[in-house]
Amino acid sequence: MSIRATAVVTIALIGLPSWALAQAGPVSLGVVAGADVADQAGQDVFAPHDRFGFIGGVSGSFRFASRWAVQVEGLYVQKGGRENNDMRPEDPFDDELSLEYLEFPILLKFAFTEEGTRPEVFVGPSFAYEMSCKYDAFPEGVSNPVDCAEAGWQTRSLDVGVAFGVDVEIPLGSGHFVIDGRGIVGLSSFDDSEANLDFRNRILALMVGYRFGL
To answer: Per-residue confidence at 50, pLDDT binned at 50, 70, 90?
Structure first.
């Protein structure tokens, strides 16, 4: 399954930009950075609480029609979540799962205008490769993060989700200033243990950046 998924991602990352370039549409590159609010959904998640993280990276956009484009991104994304024991208020949270991913969203975008300030909506699959997983149980309120494997967590290296949101491109200099708001929701559990627990990543993110044409 992992090999098959990797092959699909590779073909998509290579094929979509090549197909878009063949349409002879404008090409642009961009950089973005911002913050995300992450937690987890699923039947086995207990008392979820938010975890704040960083998100940022680069993108290539290929406009194949006046208002339509395909955008491929490479992002560093911090995900995870906290679980809080409300019976012990002296403990602000009991445990924390910190996940770091290299994520590749492939987005179909529609712009509401062709010139000037350009609001856009987008949606598409997102393929996240786990770079790091840390677990912190906070014994007696003291932080003590360990690798997930050491703590008994088994996670999948590939997490497939869907990304969706809106952005606004504002003309600035020779390019566009970008404001991007999005959600990314995991489509399946990232747990890879025999227990087959239901833990799915989800984030809300706000980024700003700059995009310029080639």
So the answer is: confident
